[in-house]
Design goal:
With about 350 residues, the chain is mainly α. Helix content is about 75%, strand content about 5%.
Length: about 350
């Protein structure tokens, strides 16, 4: 299979992230407008308390240590993956370009959720302001939707690489790669703005208790003083569309990949080709499996603990697992890590 590194003049431009910065600041401006407009229509002093795992007082310190370790691994793993991809020219290909953005989204998602979770495990006051809660919800939504379609984009990339290897450098051009990544971020921002807008149309008063460790939609609308039907329908329809459309892209891509692999006469060739997709398939299974599980959990008071546990896995564990999944099975990534370790040891001995 031809390697995209055959065209070195385009190599470093795959690592350009400036387009996402513009979208980020534009979304901040829109969110600020929505929040301030909503606060003008409501009573002042609206706050929320995130119950989290406060019912389990004996587990507060052990949970804090566990989540702190997970967050540390998440930050080091995802930022390390981005650095490794940038410093190794062999990894300046579309597949790793998408992977670097997946790592960024996972890092950002974990940073939006986990620090507040850690704080609430060690302090008595678990209050979060109205603005802080809406901001957390807004940025978490961006990350979820963006990652959903980033995984679909990566499935399409594997489809082109396996089914059309000779056309891969042309088909997955720099322009197309940037367009696919920009579209994922942009759609995440659009969805999040829509969800947040309809959420802010609801009325909230005084102090409210959220039975979760994060400001997620179902928990927020549960304490509103307005009819949340429209907001709930908007997020249900949008979430269903995002899940089905992304899964259709993924399943279609892997059906063609499977057919192509089955047509190969060499057993070694089949194994080698399939091994390039194993990491991505693992990440997809974990991510979408957790989403579908949350869809199937019945909406009742008795299921809140199950929702919390699934949400922890979805929001805290998955961002940590992705860099581990992609690095442990990748020879180029492992070789770069070993080279960095040896370089550091050499400099230390000097």
């Amino acid at each position: 299979m031809r390697n995209i590194n055959d065209r070195p003049e385009q190599t470093h431009s795959y690592m350009d992230n400036r387009y996402s910065t513009k979208n980020h600041f534009a979304s901040l401006g829109q969110l600020s407008y929505f929040v301030h407009r909503n606060q003008g229509n409501q009573s002042s002093g609206v706050t929320f308390t995130l119950l989290g795992f406060s019912d389990y007082t004996d587990l507060q310190l052990p949970l804090f240590l566990v989540f702190l370790i997970i967050y540390t691994v998440t930050v080091v793993g995802n930022l390390g993956m981005i650095v490794i991809i940038r410093i190794n020219p062999k990894l300046h290909t579309p597949m790793y370009f998408f992977l670097s953005h997946l790592s960024f989204v996972d890092f950002y998602y974990s940073t939006v959720v986990t620090p507040k979770l850690l704080e609430n495990l060690v302090v008595a006051d678990r209050t979060i302001s109205f603005t802080g809660c809406i901001m957390q919800f807004f940025f978490a939504c961006i990350c979820v939707v963006t990652e959903t379609f980033m995984l679909a984009v990566m499935a399409y990339d594997r489809f082109v690489a396996v089914c059309n290897p000779l056309l891969y450098p042309v088909a997955m051009s720099q322009k197309l790669c940037c367009l696919l990544v920009t579209s994922s971020y942009s759609w995440g921002i659009v969805c999040s703005l829509i969800f947040t807008y309809f959420l802010l149309e609801l009325s909230f008063r005084g102090h409210n208790i959220i039975n979760n460790f994060v400001c997620e939609h179902a928990a927020i609308v549960a304490v509103s003083y307005s009819d949340p039907y429209i907001s709930q329908m908007i997020i249900l329809v949008s979430a269903t569309f995002n899940e089905i459309s992304s899964l259709m892209i993924i399943l279609t891509s892997y059906v063609f990949i499977f057919i192509t692999i089955m047509k190969m006469t060499s057993t070694r060739g089949r194994h080698r080709t399939f091994s390039t997709c194993v990491s991505h398939l693992t990440a997809i299974t974990i991510f979408h499996g957790t989403i579908l599980f949350l869809y199937c959990v019945p909406s009742s008071k008795s299921s809140w603990l199950m929702v919390k546990v699934a949400s922890v896995f979805y929001m805290v564990f998955i961002p940590m697992l992705n860099p581990l999944i992609y690095s442990l099975r990748n020879k180029d990534v492992k070789a770069t890590i070993q080279k960095l370790i040896h370089t550091k040891l050499f400099c230390y001995k000097m």
